[in-house]
Design goal:
The protein has 185 residues and is an alpha/beta fold. It has a single domain, classed as Rossmann fold. It contains five helices and six strands, in the order βαβαββαβααβ. The chain has a six-stranded mixed sheet with strand order 2-1-3-5-4-6, with helices on both faces. Helix 1 links the parallel strand 1 and strand 2. Helix 1 packs across helix 5 and helix 2 packs across helix 3. The radius of gyration is 16 Å and the shape is globular.
Length: 185
């Protein structure tokens, strides 16, 4: 069976909770998933993700720290409107820093290269903010609430992939293209 779903872990392990996506895909790699699912830790490698997106996956699930103003550890499942991704400009190559990851710029690069992202879902987690010193020097490891949320996120993704493979047109609730899951106590 051809792989139909790409689960892409995104994040920088040297910036605390930014490593959320990397940790979740590490946990998923230890699980038995259907043959139609590919799990990859992209870290901060935006070019690698862009080229992977061009391989024709029906669905890509990006797993990333997603600051949206909630409590640290809050999980979000989002289906972004791909029409809002930056369109390629004629004669201009999209700027991508080889040492960082900006998913919107990655989507713009895919468009600029002539590729198409069929469907993108995001499983994100509200990170705990780094203090000024941590922003300068970095911090290894996830905060407690994000660490707890990583296991729950892996469960959410396993359930989501099962639904997507069974009913490809259905993901989030019909009333919303975004869901927020409660914070773990």
């Amino acid at each position: 069976m051809k792989e139909r779903i790409l689960i892409a872990g995104i994040g920088n392990i040297f910036l605390g909770d930014d490593a959320f996506g990397v940790e979740v895909v590490r946990r998923l790699a230890a699980r038995k998933l259907p043959d139609a699912v590919r799990v990859v830790d992209f870290g901060i490698r935006g070019f690698d993700l862009a080229y992977a997106l061009m391989e024709g996956y029906e669905i890509t699930i990006l797993v990333d720290a997603t600051p949206r103003g909630g409590e640290p550890g809050t999980l979000y499942t989002i289906e972004p409107d791909l029409r809002s991704a930056p369109a390629p400009q004629t004669g201009v190559s999209p700027a991508i820093d080889a040492h960082s990851m900006d998913p919107l710029r990655v989507l713009g690069l895919v468009k600029a290269l002539g590729g198409e992202c069929k469907r993108i879902l995001i499983v994100g987690c509200e990170p705990e903010a780094l203090d000024a010193e941590e922003q300068m020097q970095g911090r290894m490891g996830l905060s407690e609430p994000v660490e707890r949320a990583a296991g729950e996120a892996a469960d959410v993704i396993v359930s989501l992939t099962a639904k997507l493979l069974a009913e490809p047109g259905e993901t989030l609730t019909k009333s919303s293209r975004e869901t927020t899951l409660p914070v773990n106590p």
